[in-house]
Amino acid sequence: MLFIKRGYLLLLTGTLIGFLCFSAISMLYSGTRQPQKIGEMPSRIEIDFLYTSEKQGWIKEVTPKFEKWFKQRFGIEIHVNQIVTGSHDTVNRILDGSTRPTIWSPASSIWIPYLNVKWRNITGSNYDIAVEWTPLVLSPLVLAGWRSISERYQVKGFIDLYRLIQEGVDFKYGHPDPLLSNGGTMTIILEFAEAAGKRPEDLTIEDLKNETVIQIVKAIESR
User: Fold this and answer.
1) Residue 82 forms beta bridges with which residues?
2) What is the pLDDT of residues 186-218, one digit of tens each?
3) Which of 1, 47, 66, 72 is most exposed, with minimal Cβ within 10 Å?
4) Where in the chain is the domain with CATH 3.40.190.10?
């Protein structure tokens, strides 16, 4: 089991507080839920924070501290409405207008260009909806298995699984549903990246249509 060091947790807390503070101050000068007279500061503001469940524990812990600090620092009462759901659902909520968050925090940055493309297609807009963002956490995606198998066959990546298939080695492979899980989505992207011999950020539409790449991914997924 991996235990997060206290210093790392404090860093995450400080980063989140800074992020929330920036959003709150931006609201003060760009408009709030209740119209204010020119030059008048609101006595209370609300932030709708749409994020994913893997961050829920520590965000719930730090939010009351942020609200208290903001009140003491600026003399304005602030309330953070926390809306927790899956990354795919956050995108759908933004696109259908059911949620209009002040802050959006998906489980991975891969959802940002996805939202922008869907936004342009649905609305016909010539601009992106998500243009400024800051990563809060870097989380690894791992390929785990029995040590005896990984050492014997030198499994270090997804392309090695394809090599084992070609060699006739029998094994079982699985990952979360990419339609429901961020980890599942990222796994599929990494499979395509390794099949194409590229980094994930360098993948193109042509790579995704490449028959050789598709056959490699299909073979891996068939296990």
Assistant:
1) 49
2) 899 999 999 999 998 898 889 989 999 999 999
3) 1
4) 7-30+43-123
